[in-house]
Amino acid sequence: MTHNPDNCIFCKIIEGTIPCAKVYEDEQVLAFLDISQSTKGHTLVIPKVHKQDVFALTPDIAAHLFSVVPGIAKAIQMEYGATGFNLLNNSGEQAGQTVFHFHLHLLPRYSKNDGFK
Ligand code: 5GP
Ligand code: ZN
C-alpha cells in the first residue's frame, strides 16, 4: 500500500516542524533518538528524501545511509557504553512498519536481558 508522504511525520522532523533529539546530520541523512526507547540510545537513521521503505530506496541512497552507520554506532557506543548492536528495518505493515518513511533502527545492546527481544 502507498502512504501519503504529505502526512509523513519523519519529513516533518526533517523540515524542523516536529522536534527531535538529533544524533547525526549531513546533506542526505538524519539520525535522531527514537521517541520510544526500546533500549538506551535507540536511534533511527533516515534518508532526507522521502522513500517509503526498502523497496523504494535506490542503491545510492542506501549506500550513503549505510556508510554513516558505523560512525553513528561508535558514537552511541561511546556515549552510552553499549556492548552490542542490532540493526533493524521493518518494511511493510506485515513486517511491523508503522512510519512509512524508510528508517534503520540502531538498537544499542547492553545485555541479553536489556529489554529488546
Ligand atoms: P517502525 O515500527 O515503523 O519500524 O518504527 C517507527 C519508529 O518511529 C517507532 O520506534 C516509534 O517509536 C518511532 N517514532 C514514531 N513517531 C516518532 C516521533 O514523532 N519522533 C521520534 N523521534 N520517533 C518516532
Ligand atoms: Zn517522509
UniProtKB/TrEMBL annotation:
Enzyme Commission number(s) of this protein: 2.1.1.-
Coiled-coil regions listed: none
UniProt GO MF annotations: methyltransferase activity
Domain HIT residues, every copy: 9-116
Motif (Histidine triad motif): 101-105
Sorted UniProt keywords: Methyltransferase, Transferase
GO biological process: methylation
Protein name (database record): HIT family protein
Origin species: Ectobacillus funiculus
